[in-house]
Amino acid sequence: MTYDYSILIGGAAGQGSRKAGLIIAKLLSELGYRIFIYDDYQSLIRGGHSFSQIRASKSKVLSHRKKIDFLLALDETTVKKHRADLDEKGIIIYNSDEVSLNDKKAVGIAIKTIVKKTGGVSIMGNAALVACFAKIIGIDWKTLEKLFKKEFKKFQELNIKIAKVAFDSSPNLFKIKRLNQKQALLLTGNEAVALGAVKAGLDFYVAYPMTPATGILHYLAKHKKDFNVAVSQLENEVGVVNAAVGAAYTGARTMVGTSGGGFALMSEGFSLAAQSEIPLVIVESQRMSPASGVPTYNGQGDLLFALTAGHGDILRFVIAPGDADEACFWAGKILNLSWKYQTPSILLIDKEISESTFNFDKNILDKIKCEKPLVWDKKGKYLRYKNTKKGVSPFAFPGEKKVIVKANSYEHDEFGITIDDEEGIEKMQNKRLRKFREMKKEVDKLEAVKIYGKKQAKKAIVVWGSTKGPAKEAAEKLGIKMIQPIILEPFPEKQMKKALKGVNKLVLLEANGLGQMEKVLNCYGIKVDKKILKYNARPFLPEEIEKQLSKL
Amino acid sequence: MSNKNLKLDTYAENTWCPRCGNFGILAALKKVISSLVEKGLPKENIVVVSGIGCSSKIIDYLNLNTFSSLHGRPIVSAEGIKAGNPNLKVIVCAGDGGIYNEGISHLVHAAKRNTDITVLVHNNRNFALTAGQFTATSPKGFKGKSAPEGSIEKPFNPLKLMLASNATFIARGYSAKINHLKDLIIKGVEHKGFSFIDILQPCVSFFNTYQLYNEKVYEEKNENLTSEKEALKKAGEWNYGKDNSKIPIGIFYEIQRPVYEKELLGNLIPAKRTKKVDFKKVLEELK
């Protein structure tokens, strides 16, 4: 037995399929299953079609898959859209008040009738569908009721009443096995980013809402007292980035979050942070296409933009974690790196990481420390831009006695006074370039490139960001090597070349149309033999990667 | 304490044109700093934030904590500084081009929030450092290289805009009346919340308004500062056009309203956070 189930629950927006999906995930999580939830929704408030796909597996998974074992339909569209992906042994559970289905194996439940008779409102139909599913897979009422009490804070009694009626009127078709392993934690990538940053000493989060990064703002706003963090929503992304640089000037460890469009507006502030040598962390969660693009769907098309955004010579860290655990760790790391090198940096994630739900390894938090940056030793006159050997000038912050802290967006001398003489400019440029060399050395010390699959294989794939999840699964199954660069700037050239030793065929996978990572690899003399690109705004699936790679 | 003892000057060479209105603003600001320090404000708690342009060169001439922001962004930079460490006194010095053109959204929102900063607009009514183009407060017909036949846009009145944006302290000064300006700025800085001072500043090279202002400007001693209606009436006496009206300076409006940073942060000082975070409760929620 593989113990790897896939459950899809769908309906119109406003029917509560996401919440129902989360409850189902938690039910299975309690049984010891490892969970991944893919959330697919449109940019609308009511109507349309949205669904959650829950994968419950014995071992940790980082992706959903194409085949479905249980199709839970709140409406007819769900059945129509997803029936083709149902496994031959799969079961459809559907709202028989809205869907008529001629399928002996399907289980119909009169959701609308139950809700009406019990005195509920239509969204509570999700409770009925969850209860029906729970009964079918052999979960007892007490377990379900306990979870409902935890999950429904509003209209708890009514939801439980509805669930009970649905539970009693549903059949039990099999008994799902309880796995002998401890329940794991569940969180979204956005939540993981927030936790990692907080652990690394985040003091201030500033944002303007933009999907798919908004979840970070929501999570930190909800927990600002627990985390002792200030959270502010400002008038636009230009305001956000400039306020963040201002706050960091006072010594507050600050982070902002946005998507590509918001980051485009932030690029002037990115330059400001670089020139004034003030730490700035931007979380850029990508979505598909330029401009407004496809707001609620995935893409990896901002790679080259992230590497080059901002005017002038800019030193930066760009780090692209591939799942929630990595997002947590690197969110903390990038905050520390930004403060260590007084430089702007980008945590480049995407919709798949931001909004999917993963199992979380809480031990990662122990690996993150709030690292103290280089501060002034209080000797001599304080110079904000002191010309040091390694290019990093010690910090002091306004408010400190006998210290004058001058931050300057113009080219400046060591004290911070505006200059335009050639000698002075070259001196400051050289100082910053020395800093960049130190940043490169720092990357060499970190695990900037990860390797999965069969490590001696001659055939290898390169992936970055969320493509890691489905690609890792395919690579392990096919017995090929998978290489995942995590730090993308300064590029880990040495580690990458080491990872490529013995590889004679290299395939690149990424979710954009131009194959942007190929351009990056080419800069370092790395040739790609074949590209597999996906740009329909949906994430790669393990099965399709497997199929495409088998063809090669 | 005198300027000399405070050592407010720097080694930077002053590059303003002779007789530039900015000299008056710098002189007034130095007097303000001296007075505030005399009253007990630690000098190191003062931060002057600038944008770019002639006005913003002021930061190089002040031996104080300064933050040179981008064009149009000093207000929101200042908001970040104030939120990062609310113990700091934050004063913005920037021009009309930056505040009323490039960064107008930040002005409106800072006023709406009642963020506790003071904004001094060095309003020379043109983009001077780029050699004399029209701004939002240039009069209609203003001639510059971008509008050789004269600007076809009517200016807006920033005081009215500030009233509509719920600013809690609205004033206008004149760079040639240094002591009057000094008093205005002190009142602005001491005001709890957002204080806005539009400063008429002649530009000797591209829009020399000395004669005009010397004739028209008069010191208004408004009694009823909490009346929006009175303020609007007073602000409307002159609309930054070429009309022949008198130009009142002084405080137009002042009310008290909760300060943004206090409501945002409570007692938290992000730049000086020490309390450790307990993750236990938060992790428990992830089950």
What are the main properties of this structure?
A: 552 residues; Pyruvate-ferredoxin Oxidoreductase, domain 3; Rossmann fold; seven-stranded mixed β-sheet; six-stranded mixed β-sheet; 20 helices; B: 287 residues; 11 helices; 8 strands; 16% strand
Could you please describe the fold and organization of this structure?
The complex is a heterodimer of chains A (552) and B (287). Helices cover 38% and strands 21% of the residues of chain A. Chain A is built from 20 helices and 21 strands. The longest helix of chain A has 24 residues, at 422-445. In chain A, 55% of the residues are buried. The mean pLDDT of chain A is 97. Chain B is of the alpha/beta class and 287 residues long. In chain B, 33% of the residues lie in helices and 16% in strands. Chain B contains 11 helices and 8 strands. Chain B has helices at residues 3-6, 22-38, 74-84, 96-102, 104-113, 158-164, 178-190, 210-216, 228-235, 260-265, 280-284; strands at 46-50, 65-68, 89-95, 118-123, 169-174, 195-200, 217-219, 247-254. The longest helix of chain B is centred in the N-terminal third of the chain and has 17 residues, at 22-38. The model of chain B has no long low-confidence stretch (mean pLDDT 96). β15 (406-408) of chain A pairs parallel with β2 of chain B.
